[in-house]
Amino acid sequence: MEVDIRRVALKHALANAVKFGGKARVDSVVSKVFAEVPEARKAAKEVVELVKEVVEEVNSMSPESQASLLSELWPEALSGERKVEVKRLPPLPGAEEVGGKVVTRFAPNPDFVLHLGSARPAILNYYYAKKMYNGKFILRFEDTDPRTKRPMPEAYDLIREDLRWLGTPWDEEYIQSQRMEVYYEVAEALIKSGNAYVCTHSQDEIKAFRDAGKPDPCSFLPPEEHMERWEKMLSGEYPEGAAVLRIKTDPAHPNPSVRDWIAFRVLDTEKTPHPLTGDKYRVWPTYNFACAVDDHMLGVTHVLRGEEHAVNTLKQEYVYRHMGWKPPVSIHFGRMNLEGMVLSKSVIRRGIEKGLFSSIDDIRLGTLRALRRRGILPEAIWDLVLEVGIKPSTARVSVDKLHAFNRKYLEPRANRYMFVPEPAKVASIEGLEAPITAEVIVHPSFPERGRRRITFSKPEVYLPSDVASSMVRLMGLGNFEVVDGGSKLRYLNNDVSFAKKHELPIVQWAPVESSVRGRVLKAAGTKIEEISGYGEPSLAELPPGEQVQFVRLGFVRVEGPETYIFTHD
RNA sequence: GCCCCGGUCGUCUAGCCCGGUCAAGGAUAUCGGCCUCUCGAGCCGAAGAUCCCGGGUUCAAAUCCCGGCCGGGGCACCA
User: What is the DSSP string of A229-260?
Assistant: First the structure.
């Protein structure tokens, strides 16, 4: 045994010394020894002493003899390969207990379309339920506020579309405004068991009780009284604001907002009708109540949501406790700030109202529809979300990162086209007989996609203004000498290797007679840049939605005739 | 102010739960080279991290414990 350890120590001491300029470190060698011979941990102190001796010996040797001894005894120790890591999120706690039947949900308020911020919970919840576990993914519309965050009738469908595009199809769908009776029933049970009560104090009075950490006088009334009040709430005898149903928690809870939080309130739906149910209901559950009840009723096992919901989890646990239900596992992830993109719902909405943004898919915005219009692929959003993962700390991700992921997917798909941006130069061609024919490569990585033929008779082309050399290569057409300050191009040959050898700039061009005018729209912070120019004739045939690369310019998505939206470099 | 939660290359992240194969791996951005009919892609290389700071436990701490600092979230009859 002793001998074995000494040998192992010698091996790692040598390897360590060779790796770090002749001096091995005791700590590192000890670690390696334990890794190779885990049993040795039991006699850790002795091993350390032994390693110290060995390291001393090794360090007194010359680097050359260390290396030669190592390669003689353990040649394999010289190759330092590393483990490869697989990109995958950590498993979910509590997934075993449910036998891998993980049920998650995505629960948006249908008051707006989805944006990059909402993509995170959508993808994460979908990923765990459907990709990592063999479970169920639920879509639930949380539209229980007809007053402050009024649902937008179109939003239900817009969100469904957004999710389908994102690649997170759902197994079941629920709309909270259609489930009011469910919430009423649980409310009644809680009142009867003395765990909820109707309070008729004003908002200010309730706040005062909370701040003081004192119980609400209403809470001392018997359940029968509260049942009566509850009936009166439902029958419309209390005007808006006159009564609320509160959940008993702890009047002195360290977090004042948890103290007997409000589960239902009266809303005047004649004044502010709900887009789906009109004025049918006047008593509305709050987010925390509806959410708690639904998560249980729908069998949700895991809730993944942002850290802004941390206190809500705390509140909702009281409903579970009172009802004797088992709460789902909650995981809170941190904020994801996307630098250089407008994400906030309220800012977007205000911007659209003020005319700052044209619409919900204005290319400067971070809505999923805007990203799609810009040519961002859902796969790229997935990569971004999965990379950021479920860490609780705030992540400041850059648009560059999103673009890098997107480029990975877009690059092979996007065929190459030529587009000459303004200011373009017109040059006449000498030395080629009309009709002139060029063959441009459709995609350099995929020769099987072939070449595109451009034929024209009038010997004039548009050139990008950055052509300043005495010779230039026009892609697919030939090498030229630049004469008369760039107004003339004299044909030399069509040999790519000539261009390489003489280091000619290789540029895009467009025939003047059949070029297609176009403009590229580019989101630049709060502005939209417009780059107009001339494209090769086949641009006219590209269908809207097609994503291509404008050579030497960047990737674009075809918006419509003559309009292209810049995706990224 | 009160209540939570965090802190690893510029940025994002792996490792942390269960201390040792980590003098810290990957990605992105940057810089160089090769390759390419693009300023795209690919390949190779460089540089980049006092693992927030201080203390403690231990043979051994990015990992466990305590304190500090800094950052974030919440404090609605919104979701």
Answer: HHHHHHTT-SPTTS-EEEE---TT-SSGGGTT
User: In the sheet where A415-417 sits, what is the strand order?
Assistant: A415-417, A547-550, A554-560, A563-568, A516-524, A527-535, A419-421
Closest nt to residue A111, judged CA to C1':
B79
Residue A442 burial (10 A CB sphere; 0-12, 13-18, 19+): middle
* C-alpha dist (Å) from residue A154 to A141, A150, A161: 13, 12, 11
Residue A343's SS3 state is coil
- Give the nearest nucleotide to A494, CA to C1': B37
Measured in angstroms, what separates residue A31's CA from nucleotide B32's C1'?
A: 36
Q: Which nucleotides in chain B have some atom under 7 angstroms from a protein Cβ?
A: 2-8, 10-15, 20-23, 25-29, 36-42, 59-60, 71-79
Rounded CA gap, A223 and A16, in Å? 75
Q: Which ipTM did the prediction report?
A: 0.95
Task: Identify the residue whose Cα has the smallest distance to the C1' of B14.
Answer: A85
The residue behind tokens 């009709």 is A435
Cα end-to-end span (Å), chain A: 61
- Span CA (A124) to C1' (B4), Å: 23
Question: Which nucleotide's C1' is closest to A497 (Cα)?
Answer: B37
Predicted TM-score (pTM) of this structure? 0.94
A34, A324, A403 from A380: Cα distances, Å: 42, 43, 8
Q: Of the given ranges (A10-14, A115-119, A427-431), which has the lowest mean pLDDT?
A: A10-14
Which residue lies nearest B11, CA-to-C1' measured? A397
Which protein residue lies nearest to nucleotide B2, measured between its Cα and the C1' atom?
A: A255
* CA A566 to chain CA mean position, Å: 20
The residue among A284, A346, A290 whose CA lies nearest residue A145 is A284
The answer to whether the bond into A251 is cis (omega within 30° of 0) is: no
Interatomic distance A224 CA / B56 C1' (Å): 58
Give the CA A283 to C1' B49 distance in Å.
Answer: 56
Rounded CA-CA distance A134/A535 in Å is 50
Q: Is the pLDDT of residue A79 over 60?
A: no
Both structure tokens of A471: 């010779």
> Could you read off the pLDDT of A456-508 as tens digits, one per residue?
999 999 999 988 889 999 999 999 999 988 899 999 999 999 999 999 999 99
